[in-house]
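Most newcomers find our protein records easier to grasp once they have seen one. A record pairs a protein's sequence with a compact description of its fold. An example says more than a description, so a record of this kind follows:
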Amino acid sequence: MKGIVFTEFLDLVEEKFGIEMVDKIISQSTLESEGIYTSIGTYSFSEMLQLLKHLSENTNISIDNLLLVYAEHFFSVIENSYPGLLATYKDPIEMISSIEDHIHIEVRKIYPDAELPTFIVEEKTEDSLVLIYKSSRAMHHFGLGLMNKTFAHFNSTANIVLEKIKEDGTVVKFLINKN
């Protein structure tokens, strides 16, 4: 997993819960990196799982809800760091449906060894989208949060339903209906 995911996560934890919480969740975890991350480095996903688990235990906020909040934070990083990417789209459905064919291609230019989830467009209309998410990492709530922020970016709203196809969350269907 790319280091930017870790550095931004710890920035969010510090912003929302304080530097003491950052230190606490790092200390509670068994991290090969010892909690030292660079945005361009690559780290084990198990480290993110440990940090999320300990943050959840210390805050009584579910991991899914933490991932939603983190996705909102991460979207702002994308807005600030890559405004040109977002400017190429005029509509949230268009943007979300192009994750695999455009956005992930651009991400791989910056991070060639990034392990990204797969998004398969099953159905698409002007106001709706059905996507299948596949990932060994089961971070579908991170994807859901990014989708929510995509609609907000375009001053729009949507009803997004998440259906687990595999109980472990590695395959999920998103049913998106623009309001």
